[in-house]
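Changelog note: in this version the structure field was regenerated for every chain. One regenerated record is shown below for reference.
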Amino acid sequence: MYNRQIFISVLLVCTGFSVDQNKSIYIDEFQSVYDSKGVVSFNDNGTNYRKKIALYNANGTTFAVISLADHSIKLSNYKADISDIDLDKSILHKKYHFNPQEFFPDYNLIIFSYKNIIGGKAEVYIDKEKTTTKFIRIDSKLFKVESWKNHLIGSVLEIDNIRNPLREKPSDLTFIKKISVPNDASFRIIKFEGAWVQVECFSFCESTCDKKYRGWIRWTNGKQPLLKLYYTC
């Protein structure tokens, strides 16, 4: 009888859109700080924008369909024009809990943090508060799955020299670096060391960097991320 119960449990996990109600077990500090296992990002390869993006409920029914080519997003009986998405974000958030990690469809930029990978499906959080999950098929090559660390390496961010100043070494006891760059200068992530991340000045959008200034800032306070990432201008 015991073996039969194990077999049934495994069968339920391996078939359909099974939802794990228990809190995820995190294996590193990135997962713990970001309260998710990584990110699922739309793969903007130049042709994928022509394909429709579907999110599914746990029972396999369709929750939402996003069409970048048609500039539309449809949830149940609600349909919005992506060009006016800023006007609809409050409705999408309040009524459907739809407020992904990053959502800039005009730039073909869609990023969800994810809870679990089950076969060819990712259970993703559709809101920043991580209260609601839906499912995305990741075997269609429309999306790519990354760990938080791999996703963050090379990402662009802005430095807050008051609250989280650039330092010579990864320690609060080291000197704060004095650099001659604009206040809105952009930096990109080079590598991590504990709660610290090494960054370098980087020309991005209208922000320019004449010199390759490098230094260290904290990426986390141990409980929350401290990085403000930029994906678009």
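Spot check on this record: Residues 1-22 have pLDDT under 50 and may be disordered. Residues 45 and 142 are 9 Å apart (CA to CA).
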